[in-house]
């Protein structure tokens, strides 16, 4: 049941600043709105080194190995990873690369979060690591070139819960693909990166009900932008994304600025106008009391919380306001640092939930 609905007024999050080189973003200082987006596009284009499409398979062991869930160094596939239990199947880097597939688990390939068909598979977009993820071939094929959206009555559901079906978010009723909650923010930041990096090329691309080719400043169709802003708010930047961003810089000499500075999403596009409810967050983590009236919260999960070595609290301007080491070794209470009134997100492992301090 939905407990409450509210609007998140600004974007969030980031576990820690990624390791951008000193001075990398200096020329963006003081800018806001689309002027900031344009400048970021210039920064992340300068010095970019185009690699081959095949080279992605070589870099994935560094950028997309599972060091966060099972920690078995298999391919971290956002379309098959189960963040709350055993994966339905796994891929070993370099083995079972697609060719042909009939079923999930047959092979993995390279998923362009912005479909290749929209830019005619042209370089450098076709091999840009920062928007291309390793994914199961069958599920990638089912995603096809559909936009990302919200699905209530799926025609297809993958083994990790990713879905294909009619969109139920406002503004578009066509077929869409919905990833699981754990990776929605990751995918949103991939697309926001793409329309920033390739702003000067967007007018020559096809829309696909994804890209806004007539308004390259906005970059995305309004309905898609609003949903991705929401996903960015709900799913904070993870340590996995920070690692991936650092590997991308080593590989192709540019970065995703919205991983380094997630607060820039709302600085450019503003907050998502879509409502957020408790059902959008993890059902496996709750906080009591909520709203919080003191400096101590009790955290309840449906699994052994002792396995989580860190917990993070974010405010609503993208700042990590508190990090707690080994938070649940001696019980399930967390002492807050005299945080001011407002809305916050607690994230530990793959679990997150919101709470309010009154």
TrEMBL record:
InterPro entries: Endonuclease-I (IPR007346), His-Me_finger_sf (IPR044925), Secre_tail (IPR026444). SUPFAM superfamilies: His-Me finger endonucleases. Residues 288-356 form the Secretion system C-terminal sorting domain. Pfam families: Endonuclease_1, Por_Secre_tail. Keywords: Hydrolase, Nuclease, Signal. Residues 1-18 form the signal peptide. GO terms for molecular function: hydrolase activity; nuclease activity. PANTHER family: ENDONUCLEASE-1. Belongs to the EndA/NucM nuclease family. This is Por secretion system C-terminal sorting domain-containing protein. The lineage of its organism: Bacteria, Pseudomonadati, Bacteroidota, Flavobacteriia, Flavobacteriales.
């Amino acid at each position: 049941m939905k407990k409450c609905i509210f609007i998140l007024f600004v974007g969030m999050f980031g576990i820690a600043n990624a390791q951008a080189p000193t001075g990398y973003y200096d020329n963006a200082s003081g800018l806001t709105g689309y002027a900031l987006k344009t400048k970021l596009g210039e920064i992340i284009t300068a010095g970019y080194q185009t690699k081959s499409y095949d080279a992605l398979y070589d870099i994935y062991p560094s950028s997309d190995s599972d060091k966060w869930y099972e920690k078995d160094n298999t391919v971290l596939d956002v379309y098959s990873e189960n963040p709350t239990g055993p994966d339905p199947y796994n891929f070993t880097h370099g083995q079972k690369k697609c060719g042909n597939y009939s079923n999930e688990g047959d092979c993995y390939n390279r998923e362009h979060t912005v479909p290749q068909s929209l830019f005619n598979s042209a370089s450098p977009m076709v091999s840009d690591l920062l928007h291309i993820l390793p994914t199961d071939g069958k599920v990638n094929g089912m995603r096809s070139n559909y936009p990302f959206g919200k699905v209530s009555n799926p025609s297809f559901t993958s083994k990790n819960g990713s879905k294909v079906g009619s969109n139920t978010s406002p503004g578009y009723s066509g077929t869409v693909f919905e990833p699981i909650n754990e990776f929605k923010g990751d995918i949103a930041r991939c697309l926001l990166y793409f329309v920033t990096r390739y702003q000067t090329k967007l007018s020559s691309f096809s829309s696909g009900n994804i890209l806004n080719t007539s308004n390259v400043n906005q970059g995305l169709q309004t309905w898609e932008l609003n949903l991705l802003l929401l996903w960015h708010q709900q799913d904070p930047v993870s340590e996995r994304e920070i690692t991936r961003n650092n590997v991308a810089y080593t590989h192709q000499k540019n970065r995703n600025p919205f991983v380094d500075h997630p607060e820039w999403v709302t600085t450019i596009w503003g907050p998502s106008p879509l409502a957020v409810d408790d059902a959008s967050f993890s059902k496996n983590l709750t906080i009591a009391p909520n709203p919080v009236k003191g400096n101590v919260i009790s955290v309840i999960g449906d699994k052994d919380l002792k396995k989580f070595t860190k917990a993070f609290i974010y405010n609503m301007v993208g700042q990590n306001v508190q990090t707690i080491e080994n938070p649940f070794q001696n019980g399930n209470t967390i002492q807050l640092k005299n945080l001011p009134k407002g809305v916050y997100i607690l994230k530990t492992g793959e679990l997150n939930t919101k709470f309010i301090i009154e």
